[in-house]
């Protein structure tokens, strides 16, 4: 899976478009379907089966049976782990094809897709290792009793994921859910249904019992909503837009099911004058333009200390102008298309709004080419905190540069948002770095680096950027129920 070693080759075959329910590939009960696109060309790639509420019900019943009367519920934890290791091996075997499919359907560059596949393998192996290490405790209770805790699966988990990291988000959700012994009904994003279908095939090849993982493509308002409101789903794990999370939380209230959310951000990336300038310029560039800005942790609010502001922005703009935009399957490409026309139009709308509201457009601001959904890397300078481009999550290659003067001032301004997913600081001064890390309200803080996310470290948001944590040991808490058992001793 080395970077840029893959040859450009024929389009990967799309073998599967149906619903995976109870270990079988089925047509939807009501025959629904939708088209999925190649965002680099705008052309249709395939027609994919769309699940209705009836299919959701079938899948939830299959997941319940697999949990309570199938082999999964009685399986040794180590054996669960073995199946997960096997799946990781299969992903490794197929990673070139999976990466190509991801690039084709999602538009991310082939190098980024290959890195994602390594992330998928790492995540599955990490949680496979956890499967037989999830332990309860004995508790020194008062009186002549023995009390101990068991950690048991939450049950049937509904998992709803977005389009920006389709397979990585699948792995972040399947990994801890399966390690803890739950069963899963997953709805991938309607923009990127294809690689999840291939993963369903690989899960069957690995030998997961029928009903342990079920995959239902479809629209959010129908398939997703049916999963959220289903009374026999115990928990919803969701990654997506903050407005969707509000709808889900309200809908989940009727059945009081557990919810965990990983939502958006408007992450502050703070550059002090005492930084290593070369590293900070490269880091700020990567922070915003990685995957065309389609990243919940994108460093979209770039605070630069006044003393270096002018030089910093000029250097950033030079790099932006040199960025190689184009075919995501070409290993030389640095930025592919945005995922859809809808996203491209939204981003271009913000580019117009930024200019109208008085920010200085340093570079970009336009569509790139006239085919597919490409947007130029865009830099707005002299942005004010109350401008829409400084407040809203744009989810595209658009950075707002906000000059600042003092440490206290920049911490206060960095925190002036209802988001709190990630933040970064660039400085050689350890006092400043640790002060910022302690005072910024964000689930992840990077010092002199950006976008370093590992399967071993907890990831999630403060404030409206989320509830709960994924990755690391932290995720296990959200996929187990704790049960206290107390025994009277004679
Ligand atoms: P984005 O703006 O990034 O597309 P969304 O929150 O709309 O983010 O989508 C993330 C996931 O949530 C997708 O799988 C989508 O289909 C799903 N989704 C959208 N609306 C709903 C809803 N009302 N109920 C459940 N899932 C939904």
Summarize the structure.
This protein is an alpha/beta fold and 490 residues long. 39% of the residues lie in helices and 20% in strands.
Overall description:
This protein has 490 residues and is an alpha/beta fold. It contains 16 helices and 20 strands. The strands form five sheets. Strands 14-15-16-13-12-17-18 form a seven-stranded mixed β-sheet, sandwiched between helices. The radius of gyration is 23 Å and the shape is globular. The N and C termini lie far apart (61 Å).
Q: From the helix content, strand content and strand pairing, which structural class follows?
A: alpha/beta
Strand order of the largest sheet: 14-15-16-13-12-17-18
- Helix proportion: 25-40%
**Quantity of strands, as a count:** 20
Q: Are there runs of 5+ residues with pLDDT below 50, and where?
A: 1-8
The radius of gyration over CA amounts to 23 Å
Helix and strand arrangement:
Elements: E1 19-21, E2 24-26, E3 33-38, E4 43-49, H1 53-68, H2 71-74, H3 77-93, H4 95-106, H5 110-130, E5 138-139, E6 145-153, E7 156-160, H6 166-179, E8 183-187, H7 194-206, E9 213-215, H8 220-229, E10 235-239, H9 242-253, E11 258-262, E12 268-271, H10 277-289, E13 301-305, H11 306-322, H12 341-356, E14 360-363, E15 378-381, H13 388-391, E16 398-404, H14 407-414, E17 422-426, H15 430-439, E18 444-447, E19 466-467, H16 474-477, E20 480-488
Parallel strand pairs: 7-8, 7-10, 8-9, 10-11, 12-13, 12-17, 13-16, 15-16, 17-18
Antiparallel strand pairs: 1-2, 3-4, 5-6, 6-20, 11-19, 14-15
The chain binds adenosine-5'-diphosphate.
The site of adenosine-5'-diphosphate (ADP) has 17 residues, from helix 8 and helix 9.
